[in-house]
## 1
Amino acid sequence: MIGPLIGEALRAMAANRMRSALTMLGMVIGVGAVIMMLAIGKGVEDSVRASIASMGSNLFMVVSGAPQSGGIRMGSGSAPTLTLDDAEALMDLPGVVAVAPSSPGGAQVVVGPTNWSTSVTGTTPGYFTVAEVKFGEGQPFDESDVRGATRVAVIGPSLAENLFGGDSPIGRTIRVNQSPFTVIGVTEPRGQSIDGRDQDDVVIIPVTTAQRQVFGTQVIGSVRFVQVKAEGPEVMERLQGDMETLLRDRHRIRVGQEDDFSVRNMTSIMNAAASTTAAMKLLLGAIASISLIVGGIGIMNIMLVSVTERTREIGIRMAIGARRRDVLWQFLLESIVLSLVGCLIGVLVGVGGARAVANATELKPVVTAGSVMLGFGVAAAIGVFFGFYPARRAASLQPIEALRYQ
Amino acid sequence: MAVIELTGVLKDYTTEAETLHVLKGIDLKIEAGEFVAIMGPSGSGKSTLMNILGCLDVPTDGVYRLAGSSVGELDDSALAGLRNRTLGFVFQGFNLMARSSLEDNVALPLVYAGVSRADRNQRARDMLAKVGLEGYARSLPNRISGGQQQRVAIARALVGQPAVVLADEPTGNLDSTTSAEIMKLFERLNREEGVTLIVVTHEQDIAAWAKRLVLLKDGLIQYDGPIPPEFRRNE
Ligand SMILES: Nc1ncnc2c1ncn2[C@@H]1O[C@H](COP(=O)(O)OP(=O)(O)OP(=O)(O)O)[C@@H](O)[C@H]1O
Ligand SMILES: [Mg+2]
């Protein structure tokens, strides 16, 4: 029974090509939008998750300068207020696992004829613990390198690739702002940081060396920020208070005076970011779903028109023996076929759109099988749901009335 | 036993203004293999009677027995089954499916009867050959003449081997030569295949092809008997 009816449905669609195409367009846009929006949402969510993972957990960021709402203030002109001694003092607080005082900056890196502009971070070995850096090759520098301000560097994998191609960079010399450094380690890929920097295109060197030989202008011994890693989530709140008290004390800030530093709980900021992206993903999906519903209403509209137009045909079919359920199925199948074909094209459009977005922007949309299946399932459900009413209307016609219809 | 048996059949149409008594008590028996012409003035209730005979409409009162079952007691789906297997329809306006080939048109009743595809196509082709349209199986209805379209409709009515074929003014849209050809086809099908035929017409020369005449007037049977000798077939 169903077999010949599918043929009928296709023939009915073919008979009204333009109309069928326009009706399907609604579904195409709906499904395409759902898949694309979910892909973009998932892409953003994934990159946020990856940044969170790469940043390490239970992390504080102590930043030089007065607290501000929004963003980390960097290079604001005034000298950094935090010092390497502050960092050491923080390390002695109970519950602190590691500290990483850091001086960031940009530099030209030269190897032979290759010239590369990249970011340089001067820091201490604590950084590798704090940021949970894994090594693809070689090893980190240690305290003695910091004390001795030696010229050793750890570099990111994409920088290594850019400078050395496939060769191992270990033991090779790179010139960072003129000064020669020996590469002792290459990190594993870490992706983007939460503020959008590529953590694979970096040079990490001892903070002392950085200040004396790479960023000549900085005040020796002071750093822009200190990252602090705590033992676990349960000590975070207490530790924040302890750190603030300690630093106010060390910086001789009296009651009522404004701090010249700020302590940020990165874990809570990250969680907020993660839940924001999750909410964004949901919102994108919801908006796209609305277009699916609009597409469904389009199908219902056209099916109602089609039933009215074909009243006489329905009468003839009933006269030659179609049962009510045969007529019901005929129209239901037609709307299901319409929405499924629309959906199929929509999947292609959605996947293609996600590709285009990936090529044209920084976003990395991820099309999941789940979202395609969701789009498909919803489209089929819409075909049935919005097709049922017109189909039932057709099936409930009286044969004699339908035959008389002009 | 009669294929069709009407006893005291009444049909009223109730509009806001009045109640129309269209059929006022019809008693009619038709045996298998008969060829009956129904005539009568316009508005006498011929189509109303045919709709009742075709299980497309139900009488207001009275009993209609078709092939042994009392139609008034059947549900929608059983009525659809009767229309599918026991009855065949030929309409004045042909009523073919415009988008389907002639073969598919003829096979349509078999689709609803659940006959397999290969079987359907074979029987539809055989039927088309029987009405003189072999070789037209894949044509579309709008590519052939009115007379040919009516032949297709007849093939469709006959493909399920129904007990009775009902035709309401089957030649109403055709010229007299084509009409005669259609009637000749009916006559042959009745004579050779024993198909029971009931044909409504306004023309005496059409009715002349039948063997029995039923004359309706004002909702009552005025005459029921052999075709009067003054009716001449136009051949
Ligand atoms: N659905 C309906 N509602 C109300 N009145 C109807 C309906 N169908 C038919 N009638 C009336 O019933 C009467 C008989 O109609 P019917 O169609 O049976 O006549 P007929 O004999 O077939 O006429 P014709 O030769 O013109 O086809 C007419 O007066 C018609 O107006
Ligand atoms: Mg009539």
## 2
Amino acid sequence: MTSRIGEAFSGAGRPLLVACLVAGDPSEEVSLELMREAESCGADIIELVMPHSDPVADGPVMQKAMQRALHAGTTPGTLFTLVREFRARSGTPVLVLTYANIVVQRGIESFYRDAAAAGADGIAVADAPLEEADPFCRAARESGIDQILFVSQTTSRERLEKIAAKASGFLYLVAVLGVTGDREKIDPRVIGILQAVKAVSTLPVVPGFGIGTAGQVREMVRAGADGVIAGSAIVREVERALNDPRGTREAVGAKVRELASALR
Amino acid sequence: MTDPSRFGVYGGQFVPETLMAALEELEHAFRTIVPKEEFQEEMRYYLHEYAGRKTPLTFCRNVSRDFGCRVYLKREDLLHSGAHKLNNALGQALLARFMGKRRLIAETGAGQHGVATAIAGAVLGMQVVVYMGDEDIERQALNVVRMKMLGAQVTPVSSGSRTLKDAINEALRDWVANVETTHYLIGSVVGPHPFPTMVRDFQTVIGTETREQVLEKEGRLPDAIVACVGGGSNAIGIFTPFLDEKTRLYGAEAGGEGPGGRHGATLCRGRPGVLHGAYSYLIQDAFGQILESHSISAGLDYPGVGPEHSFLRDCGRVSYYQVTDREALDAFFYLSRSEGIIPALESAHAVSLAERVASGLAKDDILVINLSGRGDKDVAQVAALAGDTL
Ligand SMILES: Cc1ncc(COP(=O)(O)O)c(C=O)c1O
């Protein structure tokens, strides 16, 4: 059975835009509007981040967004409500990204079951590498959703093969040596890594971290990416117009449109 | 086969994929380089000739009289730098040099680990960057100056609770970005495997010496050992050679403001979860968000604890108790005035718990307190707290 994420990649005939937003940033209500806005402006997959108090893989923009969301009272309950309400009107795949402790505290099986029931299609856990992935992968299989795993420039070929064997949906290629956040340039080494990953796996390979302009999107596509993930570049737009929900929506929409245009 | 990355169910490697190669490299280096005679010889030189080991095991006449048993202090306060942290800093810095790394990063709470890393970097010729929370920079100002004098760069951390937890977050983010050139010299038995095991091994010199010294002086092993527990490195260091013995082992956690108030008593009042690369007890809310800890002592102000302590707690081998800010402050003055030794506020927690433990001991029973550090760094803070009563 192919998942909604798998179908999106195989059916589109072009690389996909994964647009990342933080659940509950700046509030539950506006967050749902932003998901819908991103979709209508060309996002092919929505990546919804469940915030964590100590996001060690994230740079300043995502850190601040998570703080805003937590301040607004965001819990996994909020996350699942957002997914459910979005899903009620949309067939666009939704991927949940979070940190291990958030999943562990709810109970791994419960978290995955609740996510699947709400209509999520995949889960990525930023701090659960191959060594810790088994319980998460098992829960994903049992809930019928994809476990998205990460590969990076420092991943050896041997690890790459093991990761590819456990992952489903797509492979998340960490495109920088570092945390999330904008970068001026694409790291030239990513191009080589992209090819190496594609050589060992039939899954779509999707780079993320540091991709925030149409030019960078095109560069990744030329290098053979099956899609791109944009996080901080979109989330920064939320920060720009904090007290003006309509302004926020327009700013986020404009950014998503800019990135999506590079894929069409 | 037991999993070397775990202590029972605790420990593991919960880090972003980008760091896994560095952890594999470090684990390999730790297993192959540290046992080599070449490494051990260097280590002996730095510990003995340079840092001043072995540290005394002092029989304290006045405390023994007051507590009603035979009380010894293991004098890590007399180690170069003023705390046990240097044992680990020298070990890891040396290992990093053998691995060809030229840059060291560290987090620090009390500043003692930052100072220890700055010292190791200076003597071994390596660049040092120390991450330190804004709040700790304020309350441990003396150590900030020391680090700078030693040539280290101190980078303030203003995110989150602006204390040790956030300094570790920032150090991890730096490591992810500079993993090829940099060694993250973590300061306690926390973090992803192999750190908890490696730091324990470098700190076990405390317990090994204590065992020899107490056998020499008393002809038998101690009845009880007390140490304070922040991340848990000085405690594990002194406990390890006694784990298979009858000696009762006690850990003093930061009780902070006391019942109902803010605290740093992770094992006494927390719940298992994942933070900073390991599954261990944590101070957290129902949803897995980490809560701010509090302690009068920066070195115990941490909402996590080393995974081996979680294991030792669950299996009952070590008993952990809380010591409040107030009790620690009282013990700080007590040891200063009864023995002429000003303890670190962290170590004062151990002194306070030792008094409680001693009440259940007989006159000839032997009690060892790990005096993990000296209190010079704390005098300004304590003077401000004590005010006119000083
Ligand atoms: C003197 C002293 N003792 C104890 C600690 C707590 O650390 P650990 O529990 O790892 O020994 C610190 C930490 O900064 C310290 O400076």
